[in-house]
Amino acid sequence: MTTNLETAENIIAKAPSRSERFDPTSIMLHWLTVLLIIGQFTTIWLHEFVGHGTALGSAILDAHRTMGMLTWAVVLARIVWRRRFAHLPPFPQSMPKLQQLIAKANEYGLYGLLLVQPITGLGEVLFRGRSFALFIWEVPALLEPEPAIRALFVRAHELGGHALPILIGLHAGAALFHGFVLRDGVLQRMLPESVTGRRVLVDERQGSA
Q1: Is the separation of the CB atoms in 112 and 128 below 8 Å?
Q2: Coil, helix or strand for 134?
Q3: How far is CA 161 from the centre of its chain?
Q4: CA torsion sign, 62 to 66 to 68 to 69?
Q5: CA 155, CA 159: separation in Å to the nearest integer?
Q6: Can you give the pTM of this predicted structure?
Q7: Pairing of strands 137-139, 132-134
Q8: Buried-state track 52-80, b at ≥16 Cβ within 10 A, e below 16
Q9: How many angstroms separate the most distant Cα atoms in the chain?
Q10: Which residue from 16, 51, 58, 119 could staple onto 20, CB 3.0 to 4.6 Å apart?
């Protein structure tokens, strides 16, 4: 019984306090970005499955393009919020400096790629020289067709599409490692407070049983 209570107390102690958590706006923008990225990958996979040149394929590509621009806007908002208003909790003292530098490099790399990727996708469309759908509007052709320039944007977009899952995988893998192996509160800093509070309560009840 005493051991169980000590275990529950340790779990509660590792739950980050408000000062050790990101602010609610940062958390909301983070998970909105995650949802948009999932939508991005889902639509491009569906487009490859359905095929080019079909009405359904065009509709899926329009959705992909729209979510790409939404992602760009949300990431830009995240950067502005982070620079001017966000509460940025420090890394745990137990986390080596090298790991902190790697985590920051990965984060900045994700920000940069998530800003560049929609731009390369838009450039690919613009230099095609045709009208295209974006959000609820039909945008007329704004530029003359430039196959050589468009090919550069296509290649850049493809490279970004390969690099993005790698950076996301590293980011998610590190977060899960901190959350379930090191249990140092890093993962919980970006989880909604209702989720972390509920988990602590469940663990407390299990430890007291």
Answers
A1: no
A2: strand
A3: 14
A4: positive
A5: 6
A6: 0.84
A7: antiparallel
A8: eeeeebeebbbbbbbbbbbbbebbeebbe
A9: 76
A10: 16
H or E element that contains 205? helix 193-208
Q: How many helices (H) and strands (E) does the chain have?
A: 6, 2
Q: What's the residue count for the chain?
A: 209
**Contact (Cβ atoms closer than 8 angstroms) between residue 87 and residue 23:** yes
In this prediction, the residues of the chain whose per-residue pLDDT falls under 70 are: 1-19, 194, 196-209
Q: pLDDT tens for residues 125-143? A: 999 999 999 998 999 999 9
Cβ atoms of residues 71 and 118 within 8 Å: yes
Closest CA to 39 of 2, 84, 74: 74
Which pLDDT score, from 0 to 100, does residue 5 have? 43
